[in-house]
Structure prediction request, 203 residues.
Amino acid sequence: MACEQLVAALKGTRMYGISHNLRYLQSLVASASFQNNHVHTKWLADFHPAESALFVIDGGLHTTLQDWPGRLGHWDVGVPPSGPMDELSFRIGNLLLGNDEGACGLEFTMRGGVYQFRDDTWFCLTGADMSAELDGQLVDRYRPLLARAGQVLRLSDAKACVPTCLWAEDSMFRKLLAADRHLPSAVLEVTAEGHYCLAMSSQ
Prediction:
């Protein structure tokens, strides 16, 4: 009974504006080991649940969460619509994955950074060439690829002065941007290293 109440309490918890481990805790209390009281002092060392998230190892030079065409209708309070700098590449990447063309994605400027997939996820890169590698293997742009849980995506310096864009199927980052809808800005900057700050959808 207590476990069920704890699961329900965590499921109903919402936190905005700070880094947190809510999804990790939800997976923890829902696990069979926790439910059956089969825990020990070193249990968490081997507990690595799959989760719809991208782990930020290096946030790059200037990485932002964008949607297209941005957030319209806020000029009256002095806020521009923002939105992606490279609208065409942004929309193409979404359509290649079967997303709505305006779905949320990451836009990298000058240098992309390093990110770890926390679950099996289809993704696509478009825009400038950043010599992207997935576990050391070069990644083609404008081609949907499947990343396995734990694989690391590394993006280097851009070879042109235009952004590079990243998406996952079914609109990655949708939950994060929805949580930020109370803000008029369309830009959410990714700077915190070592944080699960990007919500994603995966198979």
